[in-house]
Amino acid sequence: MRLHQSWTTAFIALIVLTGAAFAEVTVSQSNDPKAVIGQEFRALLGVEHRTVSAVPEAHRTALATGSLHAAKTVKAKGKLATLDYTEAFLASQPSPAGNADWQCLTKALYFEARGESLKGQFAVAEVILNRVDSPNYPNTVCGVVEQGGKSGCQFSYRCDGMRDVMSEKGAADTSARIARVMLDGGPRTLTFGATHFHTRSIKPSWSRQFERTAAIGAHLFYKP
């Protein structure tokens, strides 16, 4: 009996010492290589899942649509690191007001994108502000929006012959709030630096020469 207890005590001590010395070593209890491979594969999938989860939503969308292969991330330029593309977020912002550039951006969003989702409207604002930052376009919002060209106006509402009256008060307020947020430095992460867009119903000749960076609602977005 005492001999049995001694062997038991020694065996337990051996287990404790072995565990202390090899606490981070995983020992396979099977000689089946499939079990080891399966365990390693599950661990690899866990790392991949955590990595994908850490990627921003816009990047995951671009990966899913195949538009990220050559797109570069546009750094947020303002105070907001991220945007909440919801009505609640816009309603929480101060009542919008501003100068001529704010008014021009508000009108452009209203006439070009008021039928789109909030993300779609923010995306059009990105395009206009990306042009303002580009040396290839005027350096003011009004200059960009009102710019003409060989084929006419850059933004169709400027050349449609209709009076630019924002008669839908709700849509006008949304456009004004989006314009204010973006002019105050809202991040531009939806279109990956796009300077052009068009509706899905048309296919302008320049679209074959540019890189498509995003597809949001009824609009496709491009950069040279």
**Share of residues in strands:** 5-15%
Distance between the termini: 86 Å
Query: Quick check: average pLDDT?
Result: 74
Order of helices and strands: HHHHHHHHEEE
What's the helix and strand layout?
Layout: H1 2-21, H2 33-54, H3 57-65, H4 87-92, H5 100-113, H6 118-133, H7 141-145, H8 169-183, E1 196-199, E2 211-216, E3 219-223
Antiparallel strand pairs: 1-3, 2-3
Helix pairs in contact: 5-6, 5-8, 6-8
Question: Describe it for me?
Answer:
Helix content is 48%, strand content 7%. It has 224 residues and is mainly alpha-helical. The chain has a three-stranded antiparallel beta sheet, covered by helices on one side. A hairpin with a 2-residue loop joins β2 (211-216) and β3. The longest helix is centred in the N-terminal third of the chain and has 22 residues, at 33-54. The model is unreliable at 1-30 and 51-78 (pLDDT under 50).
List keywords for this structure.
8 helices; three-stranded antiparallel β-sheet; single chain; mainly alpha; 2 domains; globular; 224 residues; 48% helix; disordered N terminus
